[in-house]
Design goal:
alpha/beta; Rossmann fold; 2 domains; 6-stranded parallel beta sheet
Length: 381
Amino acid sequence: MAPRILVLSASVGAGHLRAAQAVELALREVVPSATVRSVDVLELTNSAFRQMYGKFYLDLVNKAPHVLGYFYDLMDQPSRSGKHRTDRLRLAVEKLNLRKFIRLIKGEPWDLVINTHFLPAEIIASLRRKGELSLPQATATTDFETHRLWVNQPCDRYFTATHEGARYLSHWGVPASDVFVTGIPIHPVFAKSKERGECRARHGLAGDRPILLQLSGGFGVGPIVKLYRALLEVSRPIELVTIAGRNEVVKKELESIEVPPRHRTTILGFTDQIDELMAAADVVVSKPGGLTTSETLARGAVMAIVNPIPGQESRNSDYLLENGAAIKVNNIGTLAYKMDALLEDPARLAQLKANVARLARPRAAYEIVEHSLKLLPAHSV
């Protein structure tokens, strides 16, 4: 009998959903006979809880990122008694508001769950501890370090981006034999090599000078215009591709800015060609979200880190810098200076790219699927 597999996530930022999509696509390719359903669990709750859980996070990201960093660190600490009263309260609130999700996993004959957010993993683990469910589950983390909230026992497999992340899960009591270092699951298209010259040609990029790719996320948020203006101050002639996402207001503002004659620019709205643009780029200017960082590494570009969110993104930044795969720009006022310094040192840029190649895990989604399928009975695959 073909297996029935759930891929579960939560729309707290875009990265978790993108990771779920990557796992779903890999599953459909590897096990085409399987019934695969991808679910955003926040679509199975009431609007108040969805607003509290999802929108509150985005509000902190945009308006009070240091508060978010404070709570990130606070919730990563052990309690004196060994049991977090706040954990029990949070779980009770989650289960009360996610009864439709609980009915889904209890009411249908699922064979396996793969999580890309800790919210569904926490609820499934609670039901298993109470003997109300025996569904095997695996969890794929989506940043380069792990956090206490990802630990939800029982869970049969954990997938991390790094050995350090795996070691931290073990610190919280996860058996080392249950943790696999696979990388962060990214779209399967990144597992297919792309020739840089062909990508440049397809997107109208001459390639006679360094190519910089400025990202702003699918919704086009952050100081996009300020970063764009700063990049235009780079002394060396560059080819700059800026993605405005779905933000048409920002796109029009960018198009109205005069470009110095020494540079060439391309301004795009939302695009599904990020993988090819990354393959064409020398440097990607972006926040270091787990998925964006993993995609950049997979395509061999160096990242210029800007505006990391305190907490998970600042730790992603640490990982890249420790491994010599990125530069970090702390102030927009020095962006042009740091970019000139990098582009005028070909040996340094080449070393950064070599380090990027060492860290890349383009087949992470496939590895996660391979290990997860081993949780199924042999006759079902």
